[in-house]
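Bug #77: duplicate submission created two jobs. Keeping one. Sequence:
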Amino acid sequence: MENIGKLFGVGVGPGDPELITVKAVRVIKEADIIFTAASTKNTYSLAVEIASPYISPSARVEKLSFPMTKDLKEVETAWIHNTKQIANRLKQGKNAVFLTLGDPTTYSTFGYILKKMACIMPEAAIETIPGITSFHAASARLNRILVEGEESLLVTSGAFGGDRIRHIDGVENVAIVKAYKNIKDINKALTETGLSKKCVAVSKCGRENEEIINNLDTLEKRAPDYWTLILASK
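Kept job's structure:
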């Protein structure tokens, strides 16, 4: 019987090296191959930096390039190519870990890998190990209750502005990830929906140069850092 390796999707948390689960540490230590997503513009990976104390010296680290583009054909080609690369390692009998920031099932590149693996290598054994999300880390850092009682929480991306926020109905709390651009429209949407008075932005939560911004108007005067999120409530 062919010896096929196992793929683990591992969340390493939001940035603080101590916010990584015991199970994630064990799986990383035991892995033969470590995969992580990287931009086509550079090979730096924060996920690898966080996990580096636990990566075995014998493990091979492979950074998979994912283009930051709206060209769906180019993106699709990259997903298929990278998934095939992972599948080839599993067919060699290697146990592989795909590292993700935060949680692997929340706005994660690993989600695309999961979908493509179902087509390219449906027989593969895959296990997803959850991680602490950036919005949970930020609310803890601020000692701010994220949601309580019968309240609801909307988790959304701000990458394309504030339209998702404008269409909320009966939602008391919002966590906006990827709030690094279109901040003017996000701020406008927060004001329109009555969420602007109790909002705060956190940049690089738990990392060096962490910043807490209580006045979101200041973000319009400078480009927010890529690792910026917003918590807002009515």
